[in-house]
Every structure is written in structure tokens, then in C-alpha cells.
Amino acid sequence: MRLIVILFSAALLLVSGCKAEKVKPKVDTKLDVKEIPAQESWKSKILITEQGQTRALLDVGHLRMYTSTQETIIDSGMKVDFYNNFGQKTTTLTSKRGRIDDKSKDLYAYEDVVTVNDSGVVLKTEELMWKNSDQKIKTDKFVTITTPTEILQGYGFESDQHLRNYVIFRITYITNSGPAK
């Protein structure tokens, strides 16, 4: 008798479970698909090459890639190592945030941007752009350049990516910081 009651109860549960209404998920109509990244990644490394040669290596904390705007947003720290034609690292750029234009492969660095080359030249600014087509770094913002022998400050800056040949367009301050070598 007990077995019959258990089997009857089980059958009743199965039958009643099958007749439940289908639940439709709620759709948030306010959500714009363009605001959702196509890809998202944490603690990533991105290698930029040209004809098989390494040009730059990006090390980022968090990035979001958007296909609709063809850009990649870096919002959690960025470090970029630039390499010369011999594959040697010559320059390192760091910043808190960044952006990559996925069409042109131009790189934008924002907030506490510091660039250091292998000869001790240090560039500090709040915004910097690395233009992929000519491999130059540029900004129209205030910059401070510290070398082993001098400190320069001004507005507007352009240089090769190795910080060897640079120009400050509106110099506001120059001083010697030590003996020339």
C-alpha cells in the first residue's frame, strides 16, 4: 500500500510539473547593444607587429573591445613596451587608462602618462597618442621631459617612439639638472 501511495505521488508530481507555464525571461529594452562589448579581457597582453617584427607589446589590466565603434577601451592600467628594428625594447609607456582605434591601430594613453626610454629620458603628461602609421608619439597637452642633463616643460609635443628626436612646440621652462656627460 505504501509503495502505491509513493508511486501515485511521484506520478502526480511529474504530470503537474509538465503542465507549468513557460517562463519568458524579462528583456531590458533600455539596454543599447552598442554599449555591450564584443569581447572583454582581464590581464591581457597584446602584440603589435609589422611585417613579422615586434613593434609594441601592450600589457593591460582590463579591456573592452567594441565592434560597433571599432575601438578597444583600456580602463585598468596599461603598460606598453616599444621595440626597435632589432627587436630590442627601447621605450616603456605607462598610464592608468587608454584606448586603441581598431581601424588605424593608433593608441591613446590617458591619466598619469609616463614614458621612459633606455637612455634615461622621462616624459610625463596627462594624455598621449601613439600614431601607428608613422610610429610617433604626440600630445597637445602640458609635458615635462627630464633628461640626465636638463628639465624641459611646455605645451605640445612630438617625438619618435624611442624618445630620441623630440620637439616641444611651446616651451615654458628649461633648466640644467646636472653636468653634461
Write a short abstract of this structure.
With 181 residues, the protein is mostly beta strands.
Commentary on this structure:
- The mean pLDDT is 88.
- This protein has one helix at residues 2-18, and strands spanning 39-50, 53-66, 71-74, 78-83, 89-95, 97-101, 107-117, 122-131, 136-146, 150-160, 166-176.
- The chain is mainly beta.
- The chain has a single domain (37-176), classed as Lipopolysaccharide (LPS) transport protein A like domain (lipopolysaccharide transport protein A fold, Sandwich).
- It has a six-stranded antiparallel beta barrel with strand order 2-3-6-7-5-4.
Write the layout of secondary structure elements.
Layout: H1 2-18, E1 39-50, E2 53-66, E3 71-74, E4 78-83, E5 89-95, E6 97-101, E7 107-117, E8 122-131, E9 136-146, E10 150-160, E11 166-176
Antiparallel strand pairs: 1-2, 2-3, 2-4, 3-6, 4-5, 5-7, 6-7, 7-8, 8-9, 9-10, 10-11
